[in-house]
Specification:
- This protein is α/β, with parallel strands linked by helices.
- Strand 2 and strand 3 form a beta hairpin.
- It is globular.
- It starts with 10 loop residues before the first strand and ends in a 6-residue tail after the last helix.
Length: 401
């Protein structure tokens, strides 16, 4: 993959530390480019700066350079809060320590990273100025933190830092998670049903559809792409049955009626429920729809920000379908992008998009946080299949039960 790899499939590596610890210099040294502004003046980096990079053999990653942990004032507090938000969706954290050594600032962020169960390493920067304090090395060893002494200025141990980051990457990030390829074989035909409506992006397909099509081609199967009104005729004209039909969730009911029961059927969103998240948990979460009551609040989680259109799936269609299914007066609230509410307990259910713009770590962390707060969570495709009465058929290819 290259710098054009979707952000949702990139490993996120975040550098955190105090002002002037050399975080920007370290990123520049790792990627061998002048990306972040470097200055002797503390606080040069005010907002998280992202840099895409190919960390081979691991693959595409995004490095985040963050504001200093000792930033001050009201604006500084907001910057530190932004740093924590970036860490919340990170796969690997690097705590960069300057010549002052490990202080309470570093220990506080290390504790935060540990609570999130993020793999973490300590980098003692500026080894050209002085070696790490012995008590700091002891602290790392006693807490089993991997550490390195580096110099972003002269390049000392930069290669070793890259290797350590590769070693720290979660095991699931070192192997490609399965999207759809285990549901068909080489030479099989896979029919993809892609409706074109007001919400469809002009001149292109949405990312889940593109990724599934690429997955089919990569596995030397045959992808046949049609709109929903063409599916019945297409199946009649095929010389053999397809191994799988994958449809957009918005038309799953009509497609299910046109696809014979002996042909496996699922949805793009259900595939992403497994690829990015935890399919059994999201399926179980859909049961909460049956217990919704008047006045209950449901959270709609969107991974991307976009202008709402007349038939928007998350803001219009799903609320309408759920209200019709339950017959209840339910309130819906929407959170977009990387925002996720801290007061989850007020929601009776979270319905999340497929998460194509999130990395797997952030999606799983959202699911785990909902489970920790005893708030059921499902996703668009699973919820739609539930209220349309076809959920059992849609999840049948995955042999969950």
């Amino acid at each position: 993959m290259s710098n054009n790899a979707p952000r949702g499939v990139r490993l996120v590596i975040t550098l955190a530390g105090r002002r002037n610890a050399g975080k920007s210099s370290l990123i520049n040294a790792i990627v061998d480019q002048e990306i972040s502004i470097v200055s002797d003046h503390p606080g040069t980096t005010t907002d998280a700066v992202a840099k895409h990079y190919e960390l081979l053999p691991l693959g595409p990653v995004t490095f985040y350079d963050t504001a200093g942990l000792d930033d001050s004032g009201e604006l500084g507090e907001l910057r530190i809060k932004a740093t924590r938000k970036v860490l919340w969706r990170s796969d690997v954290a690097v705590v960069v320590v300057g010549e002052e050594g490990i202080t309470d600032y570093e220990k506080e962020i290390i504790s935060y990273v540990k609570d999130l169960k993020i793999p973490c390493m300590i980098v003692f920067n500026k080894s050209d100025i002085r070696a790490p304090f012995e008590e700091d090395i002891t602290y790392c060893r006693e807490n089993d933190f991997p550490f390195l002494s580096v110099s972003a200025l002269d390049g000392s141990n930069i290669y070793e830092t890259k290797q350590a980051l590769i070693d720290l990457a979660p095991a699931e990030m070192k192997c490609e998670p399965v999207l759809a390829g285990d549901l068909f074989s080489e030479g099989d035909w896979v029919v993809c049903v892609v409706p074109i409506d007001l919400a469809a992006p002009k001149g292109r397909l949405i990312l889940p559809q593109v990724q599934v099509l690429r997955d089919v081609l990569d596995r030397d199967a045959v992808a046949i792409t049609v709109k929903e009104r063409e599916i019945e005729e297409t199946l009649m004209n095929l010389k053999r049955k397809p191994a799988l039909v994958i449809t957009d969730s918005q038309v799953v009911l009509s497609v299910a009626g046109d696809v014979p029961d002996d042909i496996p059927l699922t949805t793009f969103s259900t595939l992403f429920a497994r690829y990015k998240g935890d399919l059994p948990t999201l399926v179980a979460g859909a049961d909460a729809i049956d217990s919704l009551e008047d006045g209950d609040i449901v959270l709609t989680g969107e991974a991307c920000s976009h202008q709402c259109v007349a038939d928007d799936i998350g803001r219009v269609k799903i609320p309408r379908w759920i209200s019709q299914y339950t017959g209840k007066n339910i309130k819906f609230e929407v959170y977009s992008g990387h925002d996720f509410p801290s007061d989850l307990e007020k929601y009776k259910l979270v319905i999340h998009c497929g998460g194509c713009m999130l990395n797997r770590t952030e999606m799983l962390r959202r699911i785990k946080e909902c489970k920790r707060r005893n708030v059921p969570i499902t996703n668009y495709g699973v919820a739609i299949s539930k209220v349309q009465g076809v959920l059992e058929r849609v999840i049948a290819p995955f042999n969950l039960y």
